[in-house]
Design a protein that fits this description.
mainly alpha; 76% helix; rod-shaped; coiled coil
């Protein structure tokens, strides 16, 4: 007589657990890799946005720096134009020991006001 075993056989718990765990481990590993890839892409996107913002601000800073340099150069030229004529006039008469300069106090005070208007102007940095 044929013995029908109904198509199953017995296995130990260790064999069953290792066979059941193998696909589970693969699924978990695949899910972890997929999650990591998604997080990496998200972080890369965020980093790219940060770099873009930094580039934008550096361009703004460079433009502002260029503007300040031009304004500084213009003001220094004006200060030079206020000082150099005085020094040139003093140098013209360098052979004479004395300088005749009536009303020099008023003239010098006016000139000092003009010079300090340029050297103490901090508004160029707040525009």
């Amino acid at each position: 007589m044929d013995l029908n075993d109904f198509g199953f056989s017995t296995v130990s718990e260790q064999e069953f657990t290792s066979a059941a765990k193998e696909p589970e481990d693969k699924v978990v590993t695949a899910a972890v890799e997929k999650a990591k890839a998604g997080q990496i892409k998200e972080v890369e996107g965020t980093v790219n946005k940060i770099w873009s913002l930094l580039d934008y601000h550096y361009e703004d800073i460079d433009k502002h720096k260029e503007k300040l340099n031009k304004e500084y150069e213009r003001q220094m030229k004006e200060v030079e134009n206020l000082i150099v004529p005085l020094l040139n006039n003093l140098a013209k008469s360098s052979t004479n020991e004395y300088i005749y300069w009536p009303n020099r106090r008023e003239i010098l005070e006016t000139q000092i006001e003009k010079i300090t208007a340029h050297t103490r102007d901090i508004n160029i940095f707040t525009e």
